[in-house]
Hints:
about 350 residues; alpha/beta; globular
Amino acid sequence: MRKQIWPFLAGLSAFLVLILFWYLNKSPVTEEVSIPVPKGQYVDAGELLHLTEVLSNDALAGRGIGTPGGEAAEGFLRKRFETLGLTKIGESYEHPFTVLPPADAEEGAPTHGTNLIGIIEGNAPGQGKMLAITAHYDHLGVIDGEIYNGADDNASGAAALIAVATWFTRHKPEHDILFALIDGEEHGFLGSRELVRSGAVDMARVALNMNFDMVSRSDVNELYVSGTYHSPGLIPLVEQVAADAPVNLIMGHDRPEQEHDDWTLGSDHAAFYEAGIPFLYFGVEDHPDYHQPTDDFDKIPVGFFVNSADTLVMAAIAADESLDTLDLTLREKEPGPETE
Ligand SMILES: [Zn+2]
């Protein structure tokens, strides 16, 4: 008997191995299978996620402009500027501004805010065209006792801006790049309008604004870039980035006939657009947690976010390299709906 059972067992084992292979090959990857988080080709995924989680923590109480939570967020981000050694404009990265409340302002309306501004110098500091990268760090704060953490809107964009700055501190750009973390976006682009009109930055040198606002959430791997309708000369740049990007980078949301889906006046890039400066605005499609207390860090699909941030670095590299050759003509303005 012993002599005969070994071939039988060997045959049985081979059969079981075959069954196992068949099963592994046939069974599709289900959502329960955890997909490893990409480490990031251009960004440090751990840093990106950590900063986003910190900014959207309940402790910062939704980062409302002029609130202690907003100031704490500003402090975290200022530390990053210090660590990266960005060049200051004036004495400090902090550029505080006063908000003149309208006559019918409600109690608790913001009275002051702070933009954070730093520069990474290119080959000819202080000269030539400049790229301005912006992201707002404020959010809605606390409303009716509920904290609006704004993880996607816009802890994600602020953290992505830091990731882009980190890249360029290690890979010197050709042009000066302005990095501005904006306060008061949620109250009508207060910080970006201040930045554009204050004179702190020579806006005549700003050839292009790249604005990040809500860049971490998509179930379908899609990141939109808005602005090429107004500046068709930017299409080749976007096409070049899209060809290699780990997310589907889709042009759109910038035509007047799209009405409320036209994002031309939807975030801080509006202040640049209104000043005659071309823009590329990067953001995801609205989701059910948009401007809700449920816009939390644990809702972020981290794999998409890391790929999205990688794409933003790729776009910034491409923009810096082609800033002198791009056709940056802005189409004649057409009226569009104002949204926030
Ligand atoms: Zn936003």
